Write the structure tokens for this entry.
Amino acid sequence: MGKEDFCDDSDMPKFLRGKSPVQKGLAIAGMVILGIIAAVAFAAVFGWVVMLLWNWLMPMLFGLKTIGYWEAFGVLLLSKIIFSGFHSGGGGKDDDKDSRHFKRWMKHEWEGAPAREDWKGFKDYWKDKGKTDFDEYMKSKKETKTE
């Protein structure tokens, strides 16, 4: 069995090209394991940083007690659940849908808004007429309340 019997390697990363399926499988398994170890290490370091920040700031600012590593990790996990839910980030279908919805809403909200040029004279208007008009409006509001 030679190299010509294997699938085309052109779409594989360079370090996997020309390897046997067993070697490719071991390389991919190694990358997965390394990725898991890196994620656990990142979470551990991040939990430690949360603990240090909490113990440095919270007792001084709010009079709260200091916490240990696992409590800090729990706070980190809880904040992840509360602020981003269980879904994984990364711009999935729902993110695109939400973005389109927001853009449509913004377009609808600003449809009747005056053009930028219309606002250029606002400062002058307020100096000339705005203050007196506002005072008259407030005076009329007070008169209607007393009646």
